[in-house]
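step: validate -> pass
step: tokenize input -> pass
step: predict -> running
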Amino acid sequence: MSETLKDDTHDQEHGPKAPGAPQRAKDFLQQPRIRLGAVAALVLVAAGVAWVVIGKATSSDQTSPPPPTTGPVALSASGLRTLATVVGRPIYWAGPKTGYLYELTKTGAGNVLIRYLPPDVKVGTSKPELTIATYPYPNAFQALKDVAQGRQHTLPGGGLALVDTKSPKSVHIAYPGVNYQVEVYDSSAARSQRVALSGDVGPVH
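step: predict -> pass
step: emit ->
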């Protein structure tokens, strides 16, 4: 097991993977870049409701197969905020970036990945980009603290961050009382660590 809570959850070249998933997070379906307009916003809300309903049905019926992957889809910052409001669970990012869209993918296990798409970069590109992944993980803060053994960095709001020594392009984050672990990945280790320690990583509001 990796020293950072998850087993084989990231790839040093292509970014984080969902825990236990058979594919790398970069193996997205090839789709055209989508800009969120008025009609797309309505579709997005409907998809968010379906996301919540499917998740609840699965949790109450252990014989049901896991819900399918949602996305990838490229959203504007306002579109991402709309979705976060609808689904009622934290989706972490590093805040808005001028000219960028945000590629969202949700796996059947409930992991959510937000990848920052520079202008003219299409959804599903194999090129590594800054990715903020949110993984459901009970008592993530204490678990990460135990693994860190004093090597953690303190974040605003009482959170902590731990650089993955086996893959320094990944930084793992957890906050007290939050049952989610966050992973910040970038093709540049210096950049991923700078973003993770900046205090900008937080839930989409």
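step: describe -> The two ends are 33 Å apart (CA to CA).
step: cleanup -> pass
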